[in-house]
Amino acid sequence: MGQVVRIAIQKSGRLSEKSLEIIKNCGIKFGSDSRVLKEEASNFPLEFLYVRDDDIPSYVRDGVADIGIVGRNEFDEQAIDLEVIRDLGFAKCRLSIAVPNDFSYQGLASLEGKRIATSYPHILEGILSEKGIKATFVQVSGSVEVTPAIGLADVICDLVSTGATLAMNGLREVEKIYTSTAVMIGRKKMGNDEKAAILSRLLLRIDAVMRAASYKYVIFNLPEEHLDQVAGIVGGMKSPTVTRLMEKGWLSVQTVVAEDLFWDVFEQLKALGAQGILVTPIEKMTE
Ligand code: ATP
Ligand code: ZN
User: Fold this and answer.
1) Among candidate residues 235, 210, 218, the one with its CA nearest the CA of residue 285
2) Which atom of ligand 1 is nearest to the CA of 51?
3) What are phi and psi of 84, to 5 degrees?
4) What element of type H or E holds 176?
5) 145 CA → ligand 1 middle, Å
6) DSSP helix/strand/coil, 217
7) What is the pTM of this model?
8) What is the DSSP letter of 185?
9) Domains in the chain, CATH or no CATH each
């Protein structure tokens, strides 16, 4: 029997769906029936362990799993001696200080001597002690946002993605102290060579999937006389592919454009007289 790499994934929660989606997009087939505890992929030496996100760092440390996908917040809070192998970019959220609407907030110094409710005392402590601020941490594992109203804390430090929950509880976000995304954790140097080789194969696929997600494939028609200017705008992986249209004086140009530059490029192409701009997602992309 050959080796299998075991990956710990959140059983059910904010990380589950996207974690599985990345692996599916790598062409790895599995049931993804997350009611089971464990399952094996049918076409790749990968085994899934579905657990609570809080348990993922310690499972990987203890060798129950070889790698895991967890929020950077959870990983940093537990301060477990492992490495971030890849930042996967999804499950973006921030750790913020939020105060009751009538609290006069003048920066982090306003927290001196206050009771702060949080599920992330380690991360918060690190940030406050750097500024020489002393506060009392009230550690709660859920419903942090209700603690000021019930008199358990003066302010809170909690994960925020939209701020709607805060507003519902009469709180306002006053300071972002930390940002998090989902990360793959493990050991960069695996003990077992065969497992290390499997992990490299997996990472090669994940990188291709993530790169593809950050680019678009763009096709457009362009008056021939503007071709020189286009190269400077679109860049592209190498140089754009140019073909001739039946209509005289017109070209069809195909290229790859970074997602975050797309609207800039789009406006510049329009200004050059580009027409019929067609944008499609890319499924996989290598360098
Ligand atoms: P489990 O039952 O597995 O312990 P949980 O309730 O602790 O689940 P989730 O709420 O599913 O965990 O959140 C998992 C991770 O999703 C968080 O640690 C964080 O990295 C990320 N996340 C993204 N947006 C948010 C948000 N708005 N609130 C909380 N976590 C968020
Ligand atoms: Zn959890």
Assistant:
1) 210
2) 3
3) -80, 115
4) strand 171-180
5) 15
6) strand
7) 0.87
8) E
9) 5-90+182-212 (3.40.190.10), 93-180 (3.40.190.10), 215-281 (3.30.70.120)
